[in-house]
């Protein structure tokens, strides 16, 4: 499955779905982003069951600000609507594969329980 482009109007709907969504925040002028693009695209072909999405930070500055993007590329992973990974920097293919494997292996009941504990502690 090819990557999809996200906008401010489609972002929340796409990442809220069940399953895994990887989001690459990038810009046309960014050299590391251009180097990462084929790695991300190859992952989208290899893992068609995972949504691979891109956010052009120039066109979608609102999303960049919403997520505090200060360096690109920044990669985020969402599973069942919950952000489980957020890191700036281009990943080599083996590291991206490891990330995908780790997100697939997450016990989401455990993640939700920890989130609930964290939120309870904040109140």
UniProtKB/TrEMBL annotation:
One of its GO terms (cellular component) is cytosol. The record marks 31-32 as: Contributes to redox potential value. The keyword Secreted does not apply. GO terms for molecular function: protein-disulfide reductase activity. Disulfide bonds join 30-33. The keyword Nucleotide-binding does not apply. Keywords: Disulfide bond, Electron transport, Redox-active center, Transport. PROSITE patterns: THIOREDOXIN_1, THIOREDOXIN_2. Residues 1-105 form the Thioredoxin domain. It comes from the Bacteria. Gene3D superfamilies: Glutaredoxin. The record marks 24 as: Deprotonates C-terminal active site Cys. InterPro entries: Thioredoxin, Thioredoxin-like_sf, Thioredoxin_CS, Thioredoxin_domain. Coiled coil: none annotated. The active site is at residues 30, 33. Belongs to the thioredoxin family. PANTHER family: GEO12009P1, THIOREDOXIN 2. This is Thioredoxin.
